[in-house]
Amino acid sequence: MPSQPNKQKSHNNRLLTKYLVLILWFVALAAAYANVQNIKDWIKLRGYTAPPAIVSLADQDSMTGYGRKILYVNHPQILAKDSFTNFCPSSTAEQTIVLGCYHSGQSGIYLLNVSDARLNGVEQVTAAHEMLHGAYERLSNKDRQNIDAMLLNYYHNGLTDERIIKTIDDYRRTEPNDVVNEMHSVFGTEVQNLPAPLENYYKRYFNNRQQIAAFAARYQSEFTSRQAAVATYDKQLLSMKQQIDNLESDLKSKQQAINDQQQYLTNLKTSNVNAYNAAVPSFNAAIEAYNSEVQQVRSLINTYNQTVTTRNAIAFEENQLVKDLSAPAAAINN
Is residue 332 part of a domain? Predict the structure, then answer.
């Protein structure tokens, strides 16, 4: 029969084992809680292989391993217009130049398929933009407060791009609760140069963020260059229209003067031949000047019509680009 001290020692060992097991359970639970996002990511990525088109977008966006992970966790899809509207309804439309949407809770990223070569870069910028929505959602409260402060400081003190200022101002009006979230995606993909703290932050997601901003600038220029050309032609047309109106008014006055002079010559011809002969050269000069001005008006009208044709062709191109970036119901961005 074991001695009493041995029984006590055995009991203590069992208690120690229970305590160790309990501590290990607590440690495991704490570790699991701390890594809950990684566990969720592992579950979503288990058995998932990103399609080649998605991998290509991630490559062109120079996404880091972490940036790719956020993108792939959302199982991104590139969709034709008819399918796109099923996942990105117009009620979630944004103000910026991307065409896609992110479903909160890391539950999906959807991109519109854009095949127009003139708009190369839309899908790249959109993929980065939507990935950053997913990244923003993952930020801890402390991290988010720090990032928000940097974004707002840049918006109030450093942002000079009028198009992006208007974009953010539109968000402030239509989606006041998501403005900073949108700044996080817009600044990260459409601003070429950011303050050093923000540039360092975005290195979590991109190896070469400026490459994405270059994509945005390239296809945005397809719109702005045409808009500028149309505006220039409109000014020219307005100036020509004023010239034509002035010349036509002057011709009307000249026509009346010629008619009056012709009547005077008709009367003079029967009453004073010498005076008539002396007045004829002046009358002929008036007619010559009138005909010259008529040709000037005709030439100006031809130039005006040609300019209208050129202007409308550029406007049509712009409308076609807008159509290429529009889902059937409306332009969708998120």
Answer: no
How does 57-76 read in b/e, with b if 16+ C-beta sit within 10 Å? Answer: bbebbbbbeebbbbbbbbbb
Alpha-carbon span 235 to 288, nearest angstrom: 32
Q: Do 65 and 11 belong to one domain?
A: no
Quick one: which H or E segment has residue 109?
A: strand 109-112
**207-261 tens-digit pLDDT:** 999 999 999 998 888 888 888 899 999 999 999 999 999 999 999 999 999 999 8
Indicate if 30 and 69 belong to the same structural domain: no
CA–CA gap between residue 63 and residue 329 (Å, rounded):
32
Query: What spatial distance separates the first Cα and last Cα of the chain, rounded to whole Å?
Result: 78
Q: Which residues contact 175 (CB under 8 A, 6 or more apart)?
A: 94, 182
Q: Which residues pair with 102 in a beta bridge?
A: 109
Same domain, 77 and 211: yes
Question: What type of residue is 250?
Answer: D
Q: Hey, what long-range contacts does 49-56 have (CB within 8 A, 24 or more apart)?
A: 50/76, 53/78, 54/78, 54/127
Residue pair 137/104 in contact (Cβ under 8 Å)? The answer is: yes
My answer on whether 156 and 137 are in the same domain is yes
Mean pLDDT of 58-74: 97
Which residues span the domain enclosing 315? 221-324
Lowest average pLDDT, out of 18-22, 105-109, 222-226, 265-269, goes to 18-22
**What average pLDDT is seen over the chain?**
85
CA distance 52 to 285: 78
User: Domain check: are 209 and 117 in the same one?
Assistant: yes
